[in-house]
Design brief:
Blueprint: H1 3-28, H2 33-69, H3 78-101, H4 105-137, H5 140-157, H6 159-176
Helix pairs in contact: 1-2, 1-4, 1-5, 2-3, 2-4, 2-5, 3-4
Bound molecules: fe (ii) ion (2 copies).
One fe (ii) ion binds at residues 8, 12, 55, 59, 123, 126.
Length: 180
């Protein structure tokens, strides 16, 4: 696997891990409503910042563009489908945010379950279809350049401070919800 696709795959693992924690949060149901809402607020922050802005940003701004340059159709094909799923995911995150503001836990859980199912299918397609295709079309040297661009992009979007914050949040959730 090339350096760029490998980086994205590692991020998929992080996103799947958070989705697993989110499932446990939803199932916990009990506990203080305020506590659950605080966790949900953090989850929305993670999904917006890391999953959408950073991860989907790397795919849309660099990887997909590189593939389109090599002749992969932008619309109507696999990339178009991926872009559509990113947009759908963004809608679900926005819905989760609105439910959070209204303290509508049931509504939040519904939107979160839709998001989880969508992202799992999406990640599966990227890992098993899109990335192998990208590895065939983009050579090592070009993957290294893409990876450099990813690093720069991540630095601009997330930076050191937010990176630390995201890690600390995940550690706290994992402990609170006992996820290995
Ligand atoms: Fe994607
Ligand atoms: Fe992805």
């Amino acid at each position: 696997m090339g350096k760029a696709t490998q980086d994205l795959k590692k991020e998929h693992d992080a996103i799947l891990y958070v989705l697993q924690i989110m499932d446990k949060m939803m199932l916990s149901g009990a506990g203080e409503e305020e506590t659950l809402l605080r966790y949900y607020d953090e989850v929305v922050f993670f999904l917006k910042t890391f999953a959408d802005m950073c991860h989907h940003g790397k795919e849309e701004n660099y990887l997909f563009k590189a593939l389109v340059k090599k002749g992969v159709p932008n619309e109507g094909g696999l990339i178009g489908a991926m872009l559509q799923e990113h947009a759908q995911g963004r809608d679900y995150i926005a819905q989760m945010g609105r439910c959070h503001t209204k303290k509508d836990i049931a509504g939040f859980n519904r939107a979160a379950a839709h998001y989880r199912d969508l992202l799992k299918r999406h990640i599966d397609k990227e890992n098993n279809v899109l990335f192998p295709m990208a590895d065939n079309m983009i050579d090592e040297q070009e993957q290294d350049i893409l990876f450099e661009q990813f690093e720069q992009f991540e630095e601009n979007i997330i930076g050191h401070g937010i990176h630390e914050k995201l890690h600390a949040m995940i550690d706290t959730w994992a402990e609170a919800f006992r996820v290995e």
